[in-house]
TrEMBL record:
Coiled-coil blocks: none
Protein name as it appears in the record: Oxysterol binding protein-like protein
GO MF annotations in UniProt: sterol binding
GO cellular component, one term: membrane
Pfam family of the protein (one): Oxysterol_BP
Protein family (similarity comment): Belongs to the OSBP family.
Length: 462
């Protein structure tokens, strides 16, 4: 009679330091030199190199939700564009405040939902009262004028600070919180594309878009760009006659592979356009200055443009007579704006206004559905086995669970192909396309409506 097998004891794997992780990562990347798009290859990294975060949870852009709900507050077109710029400069606090990471690749049909509850405490932007000396005339009322803000704005080294407060920092008597609901779904696997929709009905603000990246290993860094289906973030202001803003993404670089310390830098251009107000923003991300020093700086211009003849793509292309405001500063720290066409460096400090100060800010926490009300294909539940193993430093187990998940997705894809079935998202009308603006299905609208009431049970919806 054979003796019983000993009980299985799961112990943490041999720990790896950051240096050994980077060497492993670099060794994998070297195999892809010359590959035009790393993202389309969807290679599988060892679990010890992954951040225990699903991709759909990671890309939300609402790191500072109080900056989002402030969009559309002002009655003046220039001020509303400044509100959009302020939000844009907060959307990736995770890069400014945390370390770069590689989240899990998303599975087709995977989805993620959450809420934020935020104070409506961003300083009000008002540029209507006093004409700035030397500014150009404008057909837009109040476009070239000095700044007034609400009493809670606070002072800084510039004449006034418009930066959003840290999340949870209420001044004076507590005000009711605003609720923002978020829904995203992986709509395509080849290429990897997800659709997202954000809504704050109380303020009449929504945002939507497709997320897709392309990535290339240059030999010293990984360059990341928006993919062909990623047309940026589209923000709509329902209470402003559905005024819409398109915000496009710049290039990002994952560097420090050889130094043993990963870092993110941003380069090239980002654009914000509003055809309704005929105002455009060009943000030039300057990665390096003299002698190769990293600056992480933004040079920007806000100006009048013709949506039917949009030819201005560089800051220097914009004539002074069209300039409404200029922006400058390190995007990881403090960015200021000035009114009128003068370069920021020629404007006295008292006429420079802080649009954002990143230094005191941190990423706002999400409000998540209870685990018992999450569906099997909901990101946090789908990847829970991998996440738990990584947190326990049981990397071999994490890799086994991860590989099993990935193989199950391949099996589903093979069955769809055999049955000649076409994948259709559940919550979004479009897999890709529609000008980069995915529409919600009726089920998607129901899910966001329930989230607005903090109801997470989807029985009866799916």
């Amino acid at each position: 009679m054979s003796s019983p097998a000993p009980p299985t004891v799961t112990t943490p794997d041999e720990p790896q330091n950051e240096g050994s992780k980077l060497r492993t990562f670099l060794g994998i990347l070297k195999k892809f030199i010359g590959v035009s798009d790393l993202a389309s290859v969807r290679f599988s990294l060892p679990s010890q190199l992954l951040e225990p975060t699903p991709n759909l949870e990671y890309w939300t852009y609402l790191d500072a939700p109080n900056a989002f709900v402030a969009i559309g507050t002002s009655d003046e077109p220039l001020d509303r564009m400044l509100e959009v710029v302020r939000f844009w400069l907060t959307k990736d606090l995770k890069y400014a405040k945390g370390k770069p990471c590689k989240p899990y690749n998303s599975c087709l049909g995977e989805f993620f939902r959450c809420n934020w509850e935020t104070e409506d405490n961003a300083p009000r932007i008002n540029t209507v009262d006093l004409q700035t000396p030397g500014s150009s005339s404008s057909s837009i009322k109040g476009a070239a004028a000095n700044l007034k803000v609400a009493a809670n704005s606070g002072k800084s080294s510039s004449s006034v600070s418009l930066t959003v407060p840290q999340h949870g920092a209420l001044s004076g008597e507590a005000a009711p919180l605003l609720r923002i609901s978020y829904l995203t779904e992986q709509t395509s696997h080849h290429p990897p594309v997800s659709a997202f929709h954000v809504a704050c009905p109380e303020k009449g603000i929504s945002a939507r878009g497709f997320d897709q990246i392309t990535a290339k290993f240059t030999g010293t860094s990984v360059k990341v760009l928006p993919g062909e289906h990623n047309m940026g973030i589209f923000i709509t202001l329902e209470k402003r006659d559905n005024e819409t803003y398109q915000l496009t993404h710049p290039a990002a670089h994952l560097g420090g592979l050889f130094r043993g310390s990963l870092s993110v830098s941003v380069s090239e251009m980002a654009y914000i356009t509003c055809p309704d107000t005929k105002i455009k923003v060009i943000l030039h991300y300057v990665e390096e200055g003299w002698l190769g020093r990293t600056t992480n700086k933004i040079d920007g211009v806000i100006f009048k443009y013709d949506p039917e003849n949009d030819t201005k793509t560089r800051v220097q292309d914009v004539p002074d007579e069209d300039v409404l405001a200029r922006l400058s500063g390190p995007w990881r720290e403090k960015v200021v704006f000035t009114l009128g066409p003068r370069p920021v460096k020629l404007v006295p400090p008292e006429e420079q206004h802080v649009i954002i100060d990143i230094v005191p800010l941190n990423v706002a926490p999400k409000i998540l559905p209870p685990s018992e009300q999450m569906l099997p294909n909901e990101s946090l539940r789908l990847w829970s086995g991998v996440t738990e193993a990584i947190h326990a430093k049981q990397y071999s187990k994490a890799t086994e669970v991860k590989v099993a998940l990935e193989e199950a997705q391949r099996d589903k894809a093979r069955k769809r192909e055999e049955n000649k079935e076409t994948w259709q998202p559940v919550f979004f009308e479009h897999v890709v396309g529609n000008g980069g603006k995915p529409d919600l299905t009726e089920k998607g609208k129901q899910v966001l409506g329930l989230a607005q009431k903090s109801e997470w049970d989807l029985e009866g919806v799916l």
